[in-house]
């Protein structure tokens, strides 16, 4: 069975939640079944090599136009054609609602189509009215025409089932995951990373994400200036398409506020491992992988109270009112953050990439024609691992 993944920038080490999702997911799926061939069709602007292999997953770099509005849509169109006529894929796995516009095209070309909904991007402030209309159309077309739709957020999945009740039986909640980051690990030296950015272990507040309005870093900076805590504020991430918003954020850098740019691997793990508090002030999310990673590292965490963050089901002390800089400032002045520390073991049970990969593979392999000529999806029972098991399709 040949599977092509489209709609993402590429893997490995490419910034973005969809990209991190795919980087964790597909190598695990490839290891589970030797009879499947998985190919990720990425965008040339983000990949160093024309072709590569990432832990059993073939990665192909296909030309893309660098444009905030047209990049994902144009590249997905080309990628679907590539999947059909070059790779000759049996199934195309399309990620995100912008690329979802081309679910009907993939169906028309005779391929089985699984769609993953990563979040309601039409709510994002950076899009103009026309772009938001296109994104809503992508969501609608994808949910109506995909053989099955995976939704990473439990609350969003419930919302979509109400809005698209005729297609509710094709909607499946499979969340993002987190890998354990050992907070006590001694095999990775911390000092060089911390020294690079002028940091001291336990003496900084950490935020991770792209420099876009939806992440709420402007709220966090406002709160930090109101509170003026003794600890530094460290923001990890950059912008795919630098604009007035991201440039204005970067101008806020001063002695107490540090922008590190995009970080990955050991460097990012070190920043998680040594922070006093992780903050995610997002206005919109799918299911935040950065928050799951921070929790898995044993960090105290403080998240905005939007539904996808509430889906993680943390204690009330781990949430603050979204967009309320004063409330956030008050929380930043706590002498310690013991109330914001959660047990990472419970998170690794519910958001385990190995189980997520098995559940996703079952979804892709078990879609089959129904008597009505559409498709139905038969899900296997959640696979129990040593670390735990997946929640059921309702998110429990």
List keywords for this structure.
396 residues; alpha/beta; Rossmann fold; 2 domains; eight-stranded mixed sheet; six-stranded parallel sheet; 14 helices; globular; disordered C terminus
Your description of this structure?
Helices cover 35% and strands 18% of the residues. It has 396 residues and is α/β, with parallel strands linked by helices. The protein has helices at residues 17-32, 71-87, 103-108, 129-145, 154-163, 191-196, 217-227, 244-250, 265-274, 289-296, 307-310, 325-332, 344-350, 353-365; strands at residues 2-6, 37-43, 51-54, 57-62, 91-95, 112-117, 148-151, 171-173, 204-208, 232-236, 257-261, 277-280, 301-304, 319-320, 367-369, 375-377. The chain folds into two domains: 2-177 and 352-377, Glycogen Phosphorylase B (Rossmann fold, 3-Layer(aba) Sandwich), CATH 3.40.50; 191-348, Glycogen Phosphorylase B (Rossmann fold).
What is the secondary structure topology, with strand pairs?
Elements: E1 2-6, H1 17-32, E2 37-43, E3 51-54, E4 57-62, H2 71-87, E5 91-95, H3 103-108, E6 112-117, H4 129-145, E7 148-151, H5 154-163, E8 171-173, H6 191-196, E9 204-208, H7 217-227, E10 232-236, H8 244-250, E11 257-261, H9 265-274, E12 277-280, H10 289-296, E13 301-304, H11 307-310, E14 319-320, H12 325-332, H13 344-350, H14 353-365, E15 367-369, E16 375-377
Parallel strand pairs: 1-2, 1-5, 2-4, 5-6, 6-7, 7-8, 9-10, 9-12, 10-11, 12-13, 13-14
Antiparallel strand pairs: 3-4, 15-16
Helix pairs in contact: 1-14, 7-12
């Amino acid at each position: 069975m040949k599977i092509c993944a489209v709609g993402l920038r590429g893997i490995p080490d490419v910034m973005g939640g969809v990209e991190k999702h795919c980087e964790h997911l597909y190598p695990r799926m490839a290891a589970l079944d030797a009879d499947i061939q998985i190919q990720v069709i990425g965008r040339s602007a983000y990949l160093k090599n024309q072709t590569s292999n990432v832990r059993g997953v073939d990665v192909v770099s296909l030309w893309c136009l660098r444009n905030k509005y047209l990049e994902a849509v144009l590249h997905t169109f080309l990628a679907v054609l590539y999947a059909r006529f070059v790779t000759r894929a049996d199934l195309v796995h399309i990620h995100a609602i912008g690329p979802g516009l081309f679910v009907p095209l993939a169906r028309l070309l005779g391929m089985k189509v699984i769609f993953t909904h990563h979040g309601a991007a039409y709510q994002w402030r950076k899009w103009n009215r026309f772009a938001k209309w296109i994104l809503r159309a992508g969501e609608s077309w994808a949910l109506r025409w995909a053989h099955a739709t995976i939704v990473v957020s439990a609350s969003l999945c419930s919302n979509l089932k109400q809005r698209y009740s005729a297609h509710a039986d094709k909607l499946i909640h499979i969340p993002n995951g987190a890998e354990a980051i050992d907070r006590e690990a001694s095999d990775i030296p911390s000092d060089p990373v911390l020294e690079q950015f002028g940091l001291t272990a336990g003496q900084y507040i950490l935020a991770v994400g792209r420099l876009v309005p939806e992440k709420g870093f402007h709220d966090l900076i406002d709160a930090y200036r109101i509170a003026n805590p003794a600890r530094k504020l460290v923001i990890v991430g950059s912008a795919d398409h630098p604009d007035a918003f991201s440039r204005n954020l970067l101008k806020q850098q001063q002695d107490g506020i540090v922008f590190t740019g995009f970080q990955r691997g050991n460097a990012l793990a070190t920043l998680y491992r040594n922070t006093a508090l992780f903050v995610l002030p997002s206005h919109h999310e799918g299911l935040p992988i950065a928050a799951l990673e921070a929790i898995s590292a044993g960090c105290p965490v403080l998240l905005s109270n939007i539904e996808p963050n509430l889906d993680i089901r943390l204690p009330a002390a781990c949430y603050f009112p979204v967009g309320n800089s004063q409330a956030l400032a008050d929380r930043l002045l706590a002498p310690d953050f013991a109330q914001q520390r959660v047990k990472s073991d419970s998170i690794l049970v519910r958001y385990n990439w190995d189980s997520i990969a098995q559940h996703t593979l079952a979804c892709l392999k078990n879609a089959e024609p129904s008597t009505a000529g559409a498709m139905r999806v038969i899900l296997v029972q959640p696979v129990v691992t040593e670390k735990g098991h997946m929640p059921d399709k309702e998110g429990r």
